[in-house]
Design goal:
Elements (H helix, E strand, L loop, with lengths): L3 H8 L1 H12 L6 E5 L3 H13 L5 E6 L4 E2 L5 H4 L9 E2 L2 H5 L4 E4 L1 E7 L6 E7 L2 E7 L1 E4 L3 E3 L22 H12 L5 E6 L9 H16 L4 E6 L8 H11 L4 E4 L2 E8 L6 E10 L5 E11 L1 E4 L3 E3 L1 H5 L9 E4 L4 E2 L7 E3 L4 E2 L6 H19 L9 E9 L5 E12 L6 E6 L9 E2 L5 H19 L1
Parallel strand pairs: 1-2, 1-9, 2-5, 9-21, 11-12, 11-17, 12-13, 19-22
Antiparallel strand pairs: 3-4, 6-7, 7-8, 10-18, 14-15, 15-16, 19-20, 23-24, 24-25, 24-26
Bound molecules: flavin-adenine dinucleotide.
């Protein structure tokens, strides 16, 4: 066994605090509680069991009876696919891998009486249970900031984001279908970092395509708080100009200031600040504009799921800083708690495939930690993402990320590497195609199986 001084040098004090009891007690239980069975949490639970040869006792806590995928949900909004395409069950995780499923929401994680253990409180309705574990993996996804509203919330209709798939996905689908033939659909994109960098532009494309085919007199206005298209710029710019030049108006640097929804309807008005940014990114408001919509789709800024904030794991960005080798929290006193998926703060994009990859890096680090081994020093992750730009065409974006030290600042962060040239950056399809549209279904099935089956 590695001696303690060497272990301190290798792992640093924060990680050691979580490992010390484990390294020193021969028959230490190896229990992990994973909080949230979405893309990241389900993957972490599965690979903890696989890579420990079922030696780690894994409990997966989730309030929902099944997962509803965000991936592919834009094509449910346009009615092309039924909502059932988004559903993923949890049965395989328990039957095939022996993961204990616990339905409920985690409300607290506290250091406990058992040396090195965490006490996790789970609430399901009126019932509260507690469980103990050596390691906690938080994968709660995101929560949304309130939409600044000028209307009385008691009478205003809910403003749909449909950025957490579920009831809002079909509500937005129905609102789109009911929209008058010459109506206006207004959607807004929050400032980065937000969930799924290409996702809003993908939604803009498939909604514009739907309108072109079903309501040729209707318009789509895209209000982007960012200065430009944030992912797959070549393909989305081309689609905006060439496919949807007549019914889509893209407005960068438009930051939502307030929204007034029309009671009982999906429409209303949205007022934006129009901003310019200097080289350092500082914003100056140069004007404002109000848009009327028959369908409003405001995607608010978001931050890590509530439990991350309850436990004091988030910084001023709203997300949880972590050590990229293990996704263990870097907040003092929280060694042994890992944060993965969209809730974590890294330079990785917030995406399902990336959440799946980060979960594996985390699972590997935990398996090693239980054997008093340090995490892999420079892990890599890869991500592929297919984006429909119409009901028949899709493009893709792919990237390989490596955890690297910045020679200038000394800071460690994930950097996207171009596989061929070694240049940094992500790669996108040359042009959207129908073949890529059909490959998208294969990619989706494979990714979901890797996480849930
Ligand atoms: C429209 C849209 C399209 C997208 N398309 C793509 C795509 O093509 N490719 C891609 O890679 N990504 C895509 N994404 C992004 C992807 O869906 C997210 O990045 C991914 O779901 C994040 O995974 P997660 O596990 O962090 O969070 P989630 O998948 O949201 O899972 C979080 C889970 O935690 C549970 N939870 C929360 N709090 C608690 C608690 N206290 N206790 C217990 N459980 C809790 C929730 O119920 C939920 O099941 C898309 C997103 C959107 C909105």
């Amino acid at each position: 066994m590695m001696n303690r001084r060497k272990l301190i040098g290798t792992l640093g004090a924060a990680s050691l605090a979580g490992l010390w009891p484990l390294a020193c007690r021969a028959a230490t239980p190896r229990r992990v509680i994973v909080v949230g069975a979405g893309m990241a949490g389900a993957t972490a639970a599965k690979y903890l069991r696989l890579w420990s040869d079922r030696g780690i006792d894994v409990t997966l806590v989730e309030p929902a009876a099944q997962y509803t995928s965000n991936i592919m949900s834009n094509l449910v909004v346009t009615g092309q696919y039924p909502p059932s395409i988004l559903s993923q069950g949890y049965t395989s995780l328990s039957r095939k891998y022996g993961i204990t499923l616990l339905q409920g929401s985690v409300t607290a994680v506290e250091p406990g009486g058992e040396l090195g253990a965490w006490k996790v409180t789970v609430r399901n309705g009126q019932k509260t249970v507690t469980r103990w574990c050596e390691r906690v993996v938080l994968a709660p996804g995101i929560q949304f900031d309130p939409v600044p509203s000028t209307a009385d919330p008691a009478v205003a209709a809910p403003i749909l984001h449909a950025w957490q798939a579920g009831a809002q996905t079909t509500q937005l689908r129905d609102a789109l279908a009911r929209m008058p033939a010459t109506g206006t659909f207004v959607m807004s994109i929050p400032k980065a970092p937000y969930r799924c960098p290409p996702g809003p532009y993908e939604r803009a494309c498939v909604v514009a395509d739907y309108l072109r085919r079903n309501k040729p007199g209707a318009q789509l206005v895209v209000l982007d708080a960012n200065p430009d298209i944030m992912a797959e710029k070549e393909n989305f710019s081309r689609a905006f100009q060439q496919l949807y030049g007549s019914n889509l108006s893209y407005r960068p640097n438009h930051v939502v200031r307030s929204v007034a929804a029309t009671a009982g309807q999906a429409g209303g008005t949205v007022t934006v600040d129009i901003v310019v940014r200097d080289a350092a990114g500082a914003e100056t408001v140069t004007g404002s504009e109000t848009f009327s919509a028959q369908v409003l789709n405001v995607i608010p800024p978001h931050r890590a799921g509530a439990i991350v904030h309850t436990l004091g794991l988030a910084d001023a960005t709203g997300f949880a800083p972590v050590d990229g080798r293990s996704f263990e929290s870097t907040v003092p006193g929280r060694a042994g708690i890992h944060v993965i998926g969209d809730a974590s703060k890294t330079t990785l994009p917030k995406a399902g495939h990336v959440g799946n990859q980060g979960a594996k890096i985390c699972a590997d680090a935990i398996v090693r930690a239980f054997s008093a081994q340090p995490p892999v020093p420079a892990p890599t992750a890869n991500s592929a993402c297919f984006s429909p730009v119409s009901n028949q065409l899709a493009s893709w974006l792919t990237a390989v990320y490596q955890y690297r030290q910045d020679p200038a600042t000394g800071a460690w962060r994930y950097v996207a590497l171009d596989q061929v040239t070694g240049a940094t950056g992500a790669t996108e399809a040359q042009v959207p195609s129908t073949r890529q549209f059909s490959m998208m279904r294969t990619w989706y099935g494979t990714l979901m199986s890797d996480s849930f089956a």
